[in-house]
Amino acid sequence: MSETRDILPLAQGVTAAQPGDDTISMTYGDRLLRRRRLVSDGGTAFLADLPETRGLDEGDAFALQDGTRIAVRAASETLAEITGDLPRLAWHIGNRHTPCEIRPESLRILDDHVLVAMLAQLGATVTEISAPFRPEGGAYGHGRTMGHSHGPEDGHDHGPSHAHPHDHSHAHPHDHSHAHSHDHGQPRHG
């Protein structure tokens, strides 16, 4: 019995998109990849096989072996649009290492009921919208913020555990008296 396999065009690199390229609409989560079978908006199936995992943005294009380029587009997805005291709200979002799209009149994050509740408690107005998500790149030129979860797969810790008994007592004798035997520039009499 013989088996027939379709051989997909291979994309081993990413280049700049050009006008007229076929496109592929991808959510923010889907735009982080290394190896995956994909289908363009025009119906072209191909295999992305990049040298390393990377985040893709609009303006990037998969470079197929035959010279075809398939431009990346940010697909619409469910977002939380946030208005209010934007600097303060942005600080709280950033403190949680949450990807955030910063706009002049609002902030946008992927819909997350826990963050939405926290932001509402801080006075934000939060509206659910459907739009492409184009968050700021990560710090130090890394391009993508990976979040900061505390699940078992994280592979990092935050220093020594505090699960052991220890005493932070401040019950040792000490003196805060200001009585001492040197002078403070006072004239001596006598």
From TrEMBL:
Q: Which keywords, in A-to-Z order, does the entry hold?
A: Chaperone, Cytoplasm, Nickel
Kindly list the GO CC terms recorded for this protein.
Answer: cytoplasm
Signal sequence extent = none
What are the BP-aspect GO terms? protein folding; protein-containing complex assembly; urea metabolic process
Which stretches does UniProt call biased (Basic and acidic residues)?
150-190
Q: Which family does it belong to?
A: Belongs to the UreE family.
Q: What is the name of this protein? A: Urease accessory protein UreE
Q: What is the lineage of its organism?
A: Bacteria, Pseudomonadati, Pseudomonadota, Alphaproteobacteria, Rhodobacterales
